């Protein structure tokens, strides 16, 4: 028994705003419609901000999927903010705004929560429990690496680092070949099922495993030395996992490491391997308990991607005094992102400027 979750964010750092309609038509519509047609249950994590761009027929399809228990809508932060970078008041307001949007538009109140970029701190589960959430998606590797209690003193080795280097063109073929070995080894520590996450208040965590995501997508894209049969063999010993847990845009719109993948290939993989798919909240408990430290699903599990760039430092310093709708735009993580477009970053700076100007009008 496995599960699927598709993350949808129309403030995507690397996608131009002029492409939003094309993203919906090439990815969101066919992916969601095909899964529903095939009666495959899945979780949909879409930001409240993104919902405003969805056409009426897609919203109706999503609502029908919710009604038929094929779609589990998750909560998240309204504008895809990195929650550990915000004040606690703003964390609560981001989550509440997202919930209101989903209640008003999709007529559902989420019980599971997806932190953007799986960025987490130990206070987050307390806020989620206060807001009646039952589950939180977490990075599986971050759970295991949280025993490194002070990474300023002791760092962990990034798994499958050679695959990451290959994706950036560094000794591409050698690192890819060696990276597959690292990837295979990294699957050995993946465990199935949900886990109890110890925080200020304890909450049930649903682990998302990057090695599983990478194995699946390399096979669906028919990368060298990878195919569906090999991926099925590698994953065969692991039960009750999130089989897919990343961006919906990788199906139909955005290439994965240069290759476009259709949702039909994922469905074929599921059916040919007789995989039983259930909603994430219905996965069984593993019996494991973890303390999860402040982290994200970045390769090194840190928040550095959204903090260290000089523009990002400036944005993070300035957002503390921003309020209202301008605050949501300023807090959007995709202004910081992995490799954000200038227009995405400028949206945040403009929101800060416009709020600052109000003080003088």
Automatic annotation (TrEMBL):
The keyword Hydrolase is annotated on this UniProt entry: yes
UniProt KW Hydrolase keyword: yes
SUPFAM superfamilies per record: Glycoside hydrolase/deacetylase
Domain Glycoside hydrolase family 57 N-terminal: 15-282
Molecular function per GO: 1,4-alpha-glucan branching enzyme activity; hydrolase activity
Key words of the record: Carbohydrate metabolism, Hydrolase
Pfam families, alphabetized: Glyco_hydro_57 (PF03065)
Family: Belongs to the glycosyl hydrolase 57 family.
Protein name listed in UniProt: Glycoside hydrolase family 57
GO biological process: alpha-glucan biosynthetic process
